[in-house]
Specification:
The structure is a homodimer of 338-residue chains.
Chain A (H helix, E strand, L loop, with lengths): L4 E6 L4 H12 L4 E7 L8 E4 L2 E4 L13 E4 L3 H13 L3 E4 L28 E3 L3 H17 L1 E9 L7 H15 L31 H14 L6 E4 L9 E9 L5 H10 L3 E3 L11 H4 L5 E8 L6 E8 L3 H18 L3
Parallel strand pairs in A: 1-2, 1-5, 5-6, 6-7, 8-9, 11-12
Antiparallel strand pairs in A: 3-4, 8-10, 10-13, 12-13
Helix pairs in contact in A: 1-8, 3-5, 3-8
Chain lengths: 338, 338
């Protein structure tokens, strides 16, 4: 007898949904039945999975009935609307959106960091923001070894984090530029090709943009450090896939760069690319298509006696989104709490 | 009688040299005679200036004789070789390279920040690294008002900072990508199109790259704070012109974001673009072609009670290089010390 799970994917035709199906395939997640849901626009599309075509449907009452897991790969507005239905209809929801992450009842989980939070789920588990996942994966081993006093991060985020339209906007702008045509903007407020957009999400009255607030709050929640001093500047860059972060971290005890390298190299999900001559260093291009978070440029922070500086790159669609969601389901199965 | 200066430009056909001639024109710098010097490769090229064509020559003994100012817009190796000759032959040298910046005898000057350093020159004045200029222009007013305790900066640097070949490499890679051709690398160690290269210059055994060391050392020298705790991560991004910086600055006294906005808006050479709704924010594209350093995203640093976060953009070829050099000459004329 083959054990299998009935799995729904909401937002199956989006960038993250598509990557999620790819990750389910690669990891041979035991799917006995697949329900693909999306917006009206994608209704009727056909997606190959497990040797046969699946037709994408619109979400209707009963869509989640009989499902074990429902992966939500949509924005917060759609998640807020449909997640309660999925829970009512009996599915365990793994939600990639921002809709429930800061809800005290909802575990916000990176399986390598805080899997124990899953034990108290009430039907919804939130997967963090891509930038948060990338950051806590590196902070957690440092925290366990040396304690965290303060974190400052500047991000370099690819357009795929803003969805398929954003990817095609960069593509179109670059092709128009190469063809000598005028560049048009639509998804982004200003030209993204050969440019940098220094905020992601709305800027609040205190000056932080949405992405920065997520990064700070979610990191504190996942690490269980509600008062962690942390600040972030989040920037969109003209890269298709792969986010990068320049991180300054201050610890309670000093940690030598060599010790940090060894510690991070042993941590699950990380790959340290940091030869002394910088002959091989993390780039978004190198991170794209991988699940590991690449860590390099590890060095003492000259501005802080107990500080380290480092540079990380991650595939924002995989570990930053789809892979983390699938790992959450795998961990729940392992713990027998799905 | 028209007062004028005999001006030599070394590296006249490079990106910075070309921009310098443009800036001399725009600012109506009183040039009575122009001597254009460059490498063998550019010998014989013709450059229009002041209504007539000038022929680019190779540097020979006597090339600087009779010159009041010699602007060096070349790399450190060439500057180290030719600057002593120019000084011997009687010119005041304004050197854009890294060759003499940390020499205790050589003033390292941003005219808005430390013009008084010019008074002690001995024939050579160094103009700082582009990233240093961008940083100190913003730090100086904050330092004067509230003292500096610590600075952490992450940079986003355009390819024009690496010269004309680097610009053409990004151009070619993007056009090859648009045309479906394979991408080749030459000037950069890895693909720069749609990618990020997380070090600029060689990485030293302690893990910092050349650009980071310059940024730290030069900032301390210019601000007269030899022990300032400062750290930097410098990154090359696929942008043609315009560098950006995410800056976290900790001061001795807290400074409200509104006070900081007002203070920086009054500082010469800065333009604050920071409406509460972020409707207009600094981008490299907006900074390109301007002399002002654009400052935005000014907010309290949630990780530091006396800290501010800010985001700046600057044209690295203009204020980051050519304009600053010309301003140095203007300031020396004003002080009667040329």
């Amino acid at each position: 007898m083959t054990v299998g799970y009935r799995v729904a994917v909401v937002g199956a035709t989006g960038l993250v949904g598509e990557t999620l199906l790819q990750v389910l395939r690669e990891r041979q997640f035991p799917v006995s039945e697949l329900v693909l849901l999306a917006s009206e626009r994608s209704e009727g599309a056909r997606v190959a999975f497990g040797g046969r075509d699946h037709v994408v449907k619109r979400c209707r009452p009963g869509s989640f009935r009989g499902c074990d897991f429902a992966f939500f790969c949509v924005g917060a507005a759609v998640s807020r609307k449909l997640v309660p239905q999925a829970v009512r209809e009996g599915a365990v929801v793994i939600d990639k959106s921002d809709g429930f992450r800061m809800d005290a009842q909802v575990p916000l989980v990176v399986p390598e960091v805080n899997p124990e939070a899953l034990n108290h789920h009430r039907g919804i588990v939130a997967s963090p923001n891509c930038s948060t996942i990338q950051l806590v994966m590196v902070l957690a081993p440092l925290m366990r070894r040396a304690g965290l006093e303060r974190v400052t991060v500047a991000t370099y985020q690819s357009v795929s984090g803003a969805g398929r339209e954003a990817v095609s906007e960069l593509e179109t702008q670059v092709k128009d530029w190469a063809g000598g045509r005028e560049l048009r903007t639509k998804r982004f407020p200003e030209q993204i090709a050969f440019n940098l957009l220094p905020h992601i999400g709305r800027v609040s009255p205190d000056g932080h943009c949405g992405e920065e607030v997520k990064l700070m709050r979610e990191t504190r929640k996942i690490l269980g450090l509600p008062d962690l001093p942390i600040s972030a500047t989040t920037v969109r860059v003209p890269v298709f896939v792969g986010h990068a972060q320049a991180v300054a971290v201050e610890m309670s005890k000093p940690l030598d760069p060599d010790e940090a390298r060894a510690l991070l190299a042993r941590a699950p999900g990380l790959a340290v690319w940091d030869p002394p001559d910088a002959a091989r260093y993390p780039t978004p291009r190198a991170a794209a298509g991988r699940d590991e978070i690449l860590v390099g440029r590890i060095r003492k922070d000259p501005a802080s006696p107990k500080g380290l500086l480092l540079w990380t790159c991650n595939d924002n669609l995989r570990k930053g989104a789809a892979t983390n969601a699938v790992q959450i389901a795998e961990e729940m199965i392992r713990r027998g709490i799905s």
